[in-house]
Every structure is written in structure tokens, then in C-alpha cells.
Design brief:
Layout: E1 12-13, E2 22-25, E3 35-36, E4 40-45, E5 51-54, E6 58-60, E7 75-78
Length: 79
Amino acid sequence: MITFLLTHAVVRCPSIRAPAYGDVIPDACKSLLGAQYGDRCFFVCNPSNGYQLEGPQNVFCQHNGSWSTNTEMSFCKGK
């Protein structure tokens, strides 16, 4: 009997840098390995210090290893 082992590469998107005065969640989105295909990452700002998110609130890792939108378009703006 012959057994075949099928393997597939895990598709990953690059690590996201958190915006100044904010964060990216979950932590896998910021890890050195990056997020996996299908993962969704959320941008948050520190509202207690008067910062508000400008740009997309979230992005997701696509099948080709790229983010659904430019991750640098999300930033925290002071009031």
C-alpha cells in the first residue's frame, strides 16, 4: 500500500506595525511570522488620550499573502 502525504504551504501576510498612539489586535497580526490567510486584524487608538482612528478599521489576510488594503492608511489622529 502506498500512502501519499499531502502538504500545503501556509499563506501568511506580513506583520503589521501598530499606528502611533494605537495598537493592532490580535497579537498574531504584529508577530514576526505575520498573520495567516483569512485572519482579520483590527486597528485601535487610545481614546482616553484623545486619539481617534482615521482610515480602515480592519484588514484581512488574502489568499495571495497580501492585506485587503494598505495597512499604512490607518492611523491615530489627535483631537
